[in-house]
Write a structure and sequence with these properties.
The chain has 8 helices and 8 strands; from the N terminus they run H-H-E-E-H-E-E-H-H-E-H-E-H-E-H-E. The protein is an alpha/beta fold and about 260 residues long. It has 2 domains: about 45 residues; about 190 residues, 3-Layer(aba) Sandwich (Rossmann fold). It has a 6-stranded mixed sheet with strand order 4-3-2-5-6-7, sandwiched between helices. The protein has a two-stranded antiparallel sheet with strand order 1-8.
Amino acid sequence: MPPRDGPFDYQEGLLARSKGDKIHQGHALGIRPAWLLIILLVVTAIVTALILVPHFQPPMHLSQTSLIGPRPPIPRNFVLLRDDSGSFVDYEAIRDDSIQQVLTWAPGNLRDDDTITVISFAGESLVTLPPTTVADLIDSKTEPIREVATGDDTQIIPALQATRDVLKEHPHPTSIIIITDTLIHDVTSGQVDDLLGELSVMSLSVILPTGMSVDPTWSTQFDWAADFHAEPGDSASTALAVGEALAHATGQALQSS
């Protein structure tokens, strides 16, 4: 060992020995400092993913969502028209449950002075829930009547006429959401446009069965309407689609809460 210039620094010697021991131990374990850094980064990434991934998964139930963002202060009439014609007969109970989910969710997301109306239609129409303010939904356990419209045809005009009649005392802008396959026989009637104008309809949305496209006749007549999809046999899926349509109507975003 070459001679050392100057006096021996005992603390410096201990520090050098300590560093040497740590390096020796790392080599003894077969782990280089670079690999330790890589392992640390991988573990951090895994933990971060486990924490964040659940927050990015799409919600499975309307109750897991909220409407986010500003909206105009004017009350709105929200009308749900449910197609209960022959092609949807088997889904009556599922539709009932979907609408009840929406009514339960609405008080935390819509304005107290907004109204919700539910109308069933086929060859005729039936008002199953008259215009009800969201505030009234909070104060009472309001439920639509468990009946649906009947008839061998699928016509939208009787439902729009019923909407006009029940909203006479609620002169607010209206948003209509229709749960249907858009195979509606009287959709090209000029009376439809007249009724929509009378109702001051601000937005029109349809909710179709998953995998089904909008009927070309409907698309031509209402090229300004929005369309959403839901599994007809899944009440949670249908309720979520209604939530998305409500977000479209209010200009807000439907996000996981």
